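Chapter summary example.
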Amino acid sequence: MRKDSHLMQHDEMIGKVQALAQLPDRGSAEQATRAVLETLAERLPSALADHVAAQLPPTLATALRQVTDKPVADGNSATSGERFGLTVFTGRIAGRAATDDDTAVREAAAVLEVLDAALTPELTEKMAGALPADIRELLPSGRSMDGTD
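The structure predicted for these 149 residues follows.
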């Protein structure tokens, strides 16, 4: 990473997701990354999702923003993320990426690891704190929430 910018470039992020998730091509990695980011945006409070989007390349930030900018039809506040756990999280990713749940878990872990490297540590901590324990387990193991790191 360059010192002048903490922003990781789009191609670099997609390449890392492809390698970590052992995907066959960049198209699959692109689809997986968008699926994870869109699902993450549904789970995070919208203000936090906007902060995450601000630290991503514009092409990937769009995946987060298109979810947080959607009008809310059911009367719930658009500022609070939906509450769901790992099963729903991976199920939505699998649906969006046209894959199975096991692959979706691998893709989610890969994208979250790349996000961990791309975001400022403070923002990664806020994101981890907004996720339930079962989804948080997909974050790189060095990210503990017990304050000992």
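To summarize the output: Confidence is low (pLDDT under 50) at residues 1-6.
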